[in-house]
Structures are given as C-alpha cells and as structure tokens.
Amino acid sequence: MKGSKILLECLKKEGVNTIFGYPGAVILPLFDELIEDKSINMVLVRHEQGAAHMADGYARSTGKAGVCLATSGPGATNLVTGIATAFMDSIPLVALTGQIPTSLIGNDAFQEADITGITRPIVKHSYIVKSVEDLPQIIKHSFHIAQTGRPGPVLIDLPKNILVEEIQDFTYPETVDLRGYKPKYEGHKLQIKKAVDLIENAKRPLIYAGGGVISSGAADELLKFVEKTNIPVTTTLLGLGAIPSSHPLFIGMLGMHGTKYANYAVQESDLLIAIGARFDDRVTGNVDDFAPHAKKIHIDIDPAAIRKIITVDVPIVGDAKNILRELNCKKTKHSEWVEQIYKWKEQYPLYYKDNDEEIKPQYIIEKVNELTRGNAIITTEVGQHQMWAAQYYKVEKPRTFLTSGGLGTMGYGFPAAIGAQAGNPDKLVIDFAGDGSIQMNMQELATAVSYCLPVKVIIFNNGCLGMIRQFQELFFNKRYCHICICKDIDFVKIAEGYGARGYRITKKSDVETVLKEAFEFNGPALIDCKIPEEENVWPMVAAGNALSKMMDGMA
Amino acid sequence: MQQMRKTISVVVENKPGVLARIVGLFSSRGYNIESLTVGETEDPSTSRMTIITSGEQVTMEQILKQLNKLIDVIKVIDMNEERCLERELALIRLSTSLKNENKLMHIINISKARVMDLTSEEYMIEVTGTDEKINAFVDLIGTFTTIREMARTGSIALSRPKKQGTGRPASNGKKVSEII
Q1: How far is A458 from chain B (nearest CA, A)?
Q2: Which ipTM value was assigned to this complex?
Q3: Distance between CA A40 and CA A49 in Å, rounded?
C-alpha cells in the first residue's frame, strides 16, 4: 500500500471527513489518491491561510480536530498565521504539509522550506515523517496530542518519497502511550477541598470563565455550579458561550472592552474563580491592580498557565469539567453582592447613542440577535466590530462564537465561517467583518461559492481601520494616518464577481429586511453596511491601566 | 526581584530536532541559558540535557513547567532541589616561561588539573570541577600567565545515590563539598 493511501486510511480512522487544502507539486500523490476516495470531502481553498482558518473554524464549531493540507515551501508558509492563531487559542488542528523528498532536504531545492523549524514556537508538537512505516503511529499521536490536554495545533511534514513508497500492509495503533505526555484530568482532592472552603466562605465571589470551559465541554457543569452557588459569571472573549448570555447571572465580558459592571465586579470581588482562563493582558489590565481584594482560585489543565501572570491562592490542575463536578459546595445566595452588581448594571449599562439618520453597528448586532435568537454560529474578524459583537451579540451556546482572541488575526473570520459551515451544514453561519479585515481573505468567496457553503458576511463598513482610528484618536492626538483602506470599494460588485450575492445597506430602515432576505437566501451573501466612521468601542480600559479606570464616550 | 541560578536536568527523547525545541523554547520566551550540555544516557533512546539558567524565581518555575509541556521531554529535574554532583571539564592552553613555570605547576597540582601536552612555550591542561571551581582556576592562573585558548564543556549533573531503605542520600548527612 502506498504512503498516500495509508495516510488517508489513517485519517479516516480518526473520523476525518473534511480536509481544507490546496495542491502543489510534492503533495500531488495525496491529491491523486483523493480522486478514488469518496469518503473524504476535500475543500479546495484559494489561499492556504484560508485553509488553516477553515480547519480552525471547523474545529471550534464541532469540537473535532480540523485538518488542513498544503504543499511544501510557500504552501506551508502560508499556513503559518492560521497555525499561530490556533496555537494562541488552544484549538485542535492537524496541519499536513508536503515536503521535498528526504534525499533533497537541506539543498535549497525548489519549494523547500523548513516548515517544522518555522512553526516550532507555534505548534503543540510537530513531526517530519522519515519512513513510511512510522506514518500510522505519527497520525495517531498527532490527533491524540492535538485533541487532548490543552488542545493545540500539530504539524506533520510529509516528504514526497514517503507518499509514494509502498509497504505490504499497516495496522493502525489502538492506543497511545507517550512517555513525555500525560495530561492530568483529575483535580487534586485537597486543592478541591480548599477551593470549596474558599467558595463557601466568600462574600463577593465571581467566576471568570475562559475558552477552557468550552474546549473541555464543561458548559453544563458550569451552569449547574452557578445555579447552585448563585455566583455571577464574567467571561473572556473566548469564554463567550460558556454560559448563556441571557442567564441572569451572566454579566458580560471583562477586560479592556468589558462591561463596566463586570470590571467593577472583578475589582470588588473577594474571591475570583478563574476556570480555563489565562489572565491575558487584555483581561487583567494592570496585573498588580487586578482584583486587588480577591483571593484567587485558578482551574486550568495546563500547569504552566498557573502562576505565569498572577499569584493564586488555590491552583487546581485538571479538566474543568471534572473539577466543576467535584466542587460540591453548599447552596448559597450572595443576595447582597448580586444586588450590588445589578445596581452597577443599571447605573452603567452597555450603552450607545442610537439615531435614525445613521446605522449604528450595535443596532445591526441587536437585529441579528432578534433574527437568529442564539441559533446561529457567529465568527468575527478582528477590530471594533469584534468588540461590538462580543458586547452586544447574545451567545447562548458554546461553540457558536468563533473569534481570534490570542493572536488577534484579521482575516480569520471569513474562512473560519466557511469551515464552520462545512462542519455544520444546517446552521446559519455569519461572519461579522470590518471593511479592513474582510479584504485580508476575500478570495475565499470563491471557495464558499463553489462548494455552495451559504455563509453570510456582514461588513461593518466605516471606511477605515476603525480600532486603529480609535487608538489614534485617543492616544495619538487624532493624528490619523494609514487607516483609510476602503475608499470607493464596491463590495457588492466584488461579491457578484465571485458569484455570491451582494447587498448594500445605507438606511437604518433597511437593516432588518435586508438581513432577513440575506439569511433566507440559500447561498453565500455579503452585506455591506455603512456605519458611522467615528463610532468608538466603549467602555475602554487603556492598555496597562487598572480595570477600574474605564473610559467611556459619554462625556 | 531576586535573581537566582538553577541547574536543570532534562531527560528527553533521543530524536532529531529535540535540542532545537528546547533551545527554541528558551529563546522564544526570553529565558537565559548559561550553559547547556547534551549526551546519551544509560538508555540509548533518551538523552540527558543539563541546563544552567538564571532569572527570577517565577521565571524559573515557568521554565520547569514549559519544559515539562514539551512532548519530547520525559522528565525535568530541578537539581537545586536534589543532592547532586555537578562537573564541568575545561581544556586550556597557557603560555609558559621559565619565570612562571613553578608557580603554574603548583596551581595545576593543587587544583588537580593535568598537563596533557606541552611545548617549550605552552602547556595544554585539562581541569574538571564545578563551574565555580573552573572559574576560580581560570581567574587565578590568569594572574600569572596568558590564557591562549580555552574550551569548556558546560556542566553535567546527576543526582547522588540514595541510601537504601531510608530514601536518604548515602553521605551520612555530610555536605556535598565535604565528601568530594
């Protein structure tokens, strides 16, 4: 059996049915094999970066590892941003790259790039296959490593000769035993007991939930824990969906663009329970002044996440799902504390000044909420629209809000939406985009059209790089430069040029009808919404400040 | 924050690319490497790396954890927490002359160094010990003559045997410096 055939058989054993990829000279033996194989759906992308983000969107929305495929050299290097995005957000991804034959490696051969070297700091692990006999075990290990512990991307570099070499037969390993990799899933009993003591004695406890709750599949356990203890919950950007946004104890996102009431709650809490979150600088602001009155419990599957940024009182290493089940606290109310937070919420709500002349981005998001009622999968690009989405979109279920949090990759959302759609054919998938970000991977319109993947793109078009404009306004004395990237671009024509539907909204009264029509249309559609250029994201904590120092645009 | 120095022993898979992962981890996260040595262990499928690093306490803790996260790392041992033996070897070429020969030989002898080669103008010597000892030796000998060239291996370290039954080191409670 040929190496390429063995590879496909192994992928099928791992339950892979969709690959996002792009051909090239050295990877052709694998594509050739795919002709006969009807059980794997090969999505041909238009740029390898798109393939990596699609695999990422597929993984985030389905919970299964996403697989992307590229040829050697430029094909492989084009995956890099996508791999780094997945790495920063702990997303299970298996990236397959072609490589020149092993006999030529190191000779600067045509389309040679040391991709395992290039990606070393941004993968959980990587392999270069040196012998076809090793292939089954490497595939088994790769999927195991990508999907267990703290998930992450794994890269497998496949020299061409490996793909064409033949061996008699192969057996796919049933089990994995890696002596250097044994993730810990059960929390330490004594630590759990200490945590329970702290929780039962806290007056102003607060849960700070991150992406780990979602990747661990612990949303149900979190909800049960919250309902028993009546502890309010704030989440990180990646934690949105860990608890339904409509839940009365959910108080929005914390951090730089968090709600005021969430940030006040953090600063006033006497116990902060971090679950699957890593105290990122966009969350903490000034670390020394973060939750200054709070004892801290930190639950994380990655021991290195603990005490990396902040000293905690009770660290618990293990799987969030298991640990939440083990946290058997008595029923509590914390009525005064919850009342206090509701008062803040009333006093300092999320707020924007609406009017009938303009289309406010927040208004569009509220309309999307009304039309989708939490049943859609939302992806975002990076920038102002991303923060408005995080603030105003009601995420009701885990794995329905996909966004590049750690790396902050513009151009992520659209291919991620295509990947999510491929993994969830019956769901409505919407990419919230800026006019800047969408231009970074717009070529994937062709992919959406050719595979009839009916994703919707809503462009929040303010004619400039809005978040950068906001920073220049606030921190560079309104010295605006290099932010106008969209003058006279006709996005509708572009969509039509690719064979998708294009809509343009210039009047507030059209928002609902156009969105409805686009959502009902069974094909990819792009909706260009003109929003005011000077709309800012509020509230805001400037980088490095304490969370209590929130600016807003109300002055 | 107080700076500290740590010797870490890392048992890794004896495979290509593993050294690059370790070194890459240090450079990408901005950790210091003062010295690093690699060699096979009693099990040919593993290698032992001895890394001397320095930094703040929290950084040291992160280094141990981040090393542990690497898939190819089998075991990370904080040698500061162990009773261990640490050794380095240096090869040194020195200028000699009739004037300083006696003094040099005296220092070489009391330092348990050895002359491995010589000409009328030069000694080539070999010296082993902890890196502090070699530093001290180099400093001292440098006051009498010119060091023409030097190569050092970097430290290797190994935990001392534990006394049977008690789990305690077999040194009768003596300090490391007292028994070597």
Answers
A1: 37
A2: 0.93
A3: 21
